[in-house]
Write a structure and sequence with these properties.
This protein is α+β, with helices and mostly antiparallel strands. It is about 55% helix and about 10% strand. The protein contains nine helices and four strands; from the N terminus they run βαβαββααααααα.
Length: about 220
């Protein structure tokens, strides 16, 4: 059985969302990032990325990680696309062309969207967004997002999802980059189809359940 290691407050949400949408058999193994724990070596510390047990799975000490027999993957996009191919069904690419398009959208997300979107998230939640520095960070990130957001918005005109009329792994991987910028309404204001698509994805029951569980997971541990 597929074993997926991670925290809901991490990119592990990407493959876990796919697995839950597909109803695919898997074992979810919660692993907390060591930087969220006061003393990761304490006997009372939760299973975490600094532990020797987890480092045996991923020597990088990062989540997510996936073990499927002899196959070990440690990058969220690779894990998610591999699981889509393994289990198939309507969320998986149905043709080589769809597989190529899913990879294309995933790479656009991690190369052009995730960085500036995360900058907005960090400035909003871990900095002072009202300060001159915070406002400059958000404005610069918003400017960087304009081109990829325009590209996605134009593609979504007249269709519900990235690959057409059905929700797929492509949507999961790109949504999970775009949503980092969700607190900056101005970044989304010019792009109504992008907003519609993001809202529809986040309204899916599986995502809502995962998001509620994610918010219930402690941000830090003693």
């Amino acid at each position: 059985m597929v074993k997926l290691y991670g925290s809901l407050r991490s990119r592990a949400l990407r493959p876990l969302w796919l697995l839950r949408e597909m109803g695919a058999p898997h074992e979810w193994i919660p692993v907390v990032q060591a930087y969220r724990i006061g003393d990761p070596s304490a006997a009372t510390a939760p299973f975490n990325t600094a532990s020797s047990e987890f480092r045996a799975v991923n020597p990088m000490g990062q989540v997510p990680a996936m073990v499927d027999g002899d196959l070990v993957l440690t990058e969220s996009v690779a894990i998610t696309l591999t699981l889509a191919r393994k289990f198939g069904g309507p969320l998986a690419p149905a043709t080589p062309a769809e597989e190529a398009l899913a990879l294309n959208w995933a790479l656009l997300g991690v190369s052009a969207v995730e960085g500036p979107a995360l900058a907005i998230l960090m400035a909003t939640h871990q900095g002072d967004p009202a300060s001159a520095e915070g406002q400059a960070t958000i404005a610069n990130a918003r400017a960087s997002l304009a081109r990829p957001f325009a590209r996605i918005d134009a593609h979504l005109q007249g269709q519900a999802w990235l690959l057409g009329d059905r929700f797929t792994v492509a949507d999961i991987l790109l949504v999970e980059c775009v949503r980092f910028a969700i607190d900056d309404a101005a970044a989304f204001a010019p792009f109504p189809d992008l907003r519609r698509w993001l809202t529809a994805a986040r309204d899916r029951p599986v995502f809502k359940d995962l998001w509620a569980a994610r918010n219930a997971e402690p941000d830090t541990y003693p």
